[in-house]
Amino acid sequence: MTANPIxxxxxxxxxxxxxxxxxxxxxxxxxxxxxxxxVYQLIRDGVSDMHCMSDAYLAEELKQEYEEKVPENAVVxxxxx
Length: 81
What we know:
This protein has four helices and no strands. It is an all-alpha fold.
């Protein structure tokens, strides 16, 4: 199923904001990670109607992907202090 592109952009912004707050990241860092993520690709491609999932659910999926890709002790320059 394809979603309205404008609604998808709004969805992306809400998910990115939620993810940034969860992880203590700047919006720029969260945005960069989101657009390189598997979660984004699944939503964009309409796989399993991922765009229908809640913002919190998608932010949690991003969190799991982030924790797999970014080592816990890595220095992240854009973390909010």
